[in-house]
Amino acid sequence: MEKLINDCIKLGFGMMRLPRISRNGMEVIDVERTADMVDAFLAAGGKYFDTAFVYEGSEEATRKALVERHPRDSFYLATKINASNFAAKNEEEAKNEFKISLERTGAGYFDFYLLHALGKGNKPLYDKYGIWDYVKGLKEEGLIRHWGFSFHDSPEFLDELLNEHPDAEFVQLQINYADWDDAEVQSRRCYEVASKHGKPVVVMEPVKGGMLANPPQVVKDALNITENGPSPSSWAIRFAASLPNVMVVLSGMSNWEQMADNLSYMGNGKFAPLTEAEQGCIVNAQEALRAIDHIHCTACRYCTGGCPMGIDIPAIFSSMNIYKMYGNLERARRNYKMEVSGSAPSACIQCGQCEGACPQHLPIIQYLKECAEVLE
Question: Are residues 208 and 321 in the same domain?
C-alpha cells in the first residue's frame, strides 16, 4: 500500500473547530491563538492540516495562522470541494469552490484534495457536475498532489465507489471506538473495505465530536481513567491511530489544553499503539456505551446552515445528551438556557433540510420533538 506521507507524526490538525473570540459582538476565529497552536503542532512533528470550503472562516484562518507564517514545504494542507445543495447551487458554483479555496488559503496548491462527505444522497450531484474528472484535471495541472474523498455511508456503497473510482488515492472515514461496530456508521466495515482496496485512511471524528473526551463515568471506569492518568481523548485517538492502514488521525483542536494533551502522547514520536490489555479495556468501554441511550451527533453543523428557523441543532442535542448520558436533567436544562442560541426545538417546521444534510443520517425532526418535551 502506497504511503502518501511518512515524515510526520500520525496526528493531524483538524481546522474545523478552531478557538474563537468575541469581537464587535460576534464570535470569530481567534487567529492569534490558532497561530500559537499551529507553531506547537509543527514543533512536535505535526505537518498535516485539514480544512474545507464549507468550514466557515477556517480557510482564511489557515492562511493567516499557517500559510503566511511557515514555508510551504514544511506542511501538508488538505481541503475539500462540496457539491451538495447547501454548498453549491450548480456546477459552476461547485467547481469555483477550488478557486475560492486557493484564494482563501493562499497555499498555491493543495497536498490533499477531497470530494466532501460523499454518500448516496449527494453522489448524483458529484456525477452530474463532473467533479471526479474535474479534480483529476486539477492534479494533472499540478494544483493538487493527491485526491480522495471523505465518506458517510454504508460499507457496501464505499465498495461500489472504490470499484467505480479505483484511482482515488485515499479515503477519509469516521472512526472511533464508539462507532466501530455501530449499526449505522459501521466504522469497522468501512475501514475494512478501504483496506481491501489498498486505500490509506484518514480518520475524522476520533473523539466523536468531543463525546469521547468526556464520556459517562461507566466508560471512564471501563478504561481505568484516573485524575492523573491518560485522558479519555488519548484512548480514543490512540485507538484510531493503532489501526495499521490509518495514515493520519485528525483532531479538531479548539483550545490550547486539547493541543497540549494530544501532543503529550502523539507528538515527537511518543505514539504507542494500544497494547492487548488496552484493547480489552476498549471492548469494555464499547459495551458500556452501547448500554447508554444518546443522540449520535458529532456537531459538524452541516444541518444548521439551511435551517429556515435558525435552530441550533447541535447545541440542543448536546444539552439533551447531558440528560441522556449522565441522567442530570437540571444540568441539561441549565446548559440549554446558557448555551443554545436561536430558535427553540419546538420551532421546527419539519422541512427535512437538516436530515438531508446530516452525515450521521439522524432522525433530527423526531429528536427535536423529544428535546422540546424535555428541555423547554
Answer: no
For 302, residues 6+ apart whose C-beta sits below 8 A from its C-beta are: 54, 86, 117, 357, 358, 359
Cα 232 from Cα 180, distance rounded (Å): 17
- Show the cell assigned to 262: 494530544
Per the DSSP assignment, residues forming a β-bridge with 203 are 173, 249
Q: Examine the domain organization and report whether 263 and 116 are in the same domain.
A: yes
Helix or strand run (H / E) with residue 78? strand 76-81
> Could you read off the pLDDT tens digit of each residue along the chain, which spans 376 residues?
568 998 999 999 999 999 999 888 888 999 999 999 999 999 999 999 999 999 999 999 999 999 999 999 999 999 999 999 989 999 999 999 999 999 999 999 999 999 999 999 999 999 999 999 999 999 999 999 999 999 999 999 999 999 999 999 999 999 999 999 988 889 999 999 999 999 999 999 999 888 899 898 999 999 999 888 899 999 999 999 999 999 999 999 999 999 999 999 999 999 999 999 999 999 999 999 888 887 888 888 889 878 999 999 988 998 888 888 777 788 788 888 887 877 899 999 999 999 888 988 899 999 999 898 999 8
- Tell whether 95 is covered by a domain: yes
Rounded to whole angstroms, the Cα distance separating 144 from 104 reads 15
Closest CA to 224 of 288, 169, 317: 288
Query: Is 81 inside any structural domain?
Result: yes
Cell 453549491 found at? 88
Mark whether 242 and 169 lie in a shared domain: yes
Domain with 201 in it: 11-290
CATH of the domain at 277: 3.20.20.100
On whether the pTM is more than 0.90, the answer is no
Are both 62 and 176 inside the same structural domain? yes
* Whether residues 144 and 83 fall in one domain: yes
Count of structural domains, the chain: 2
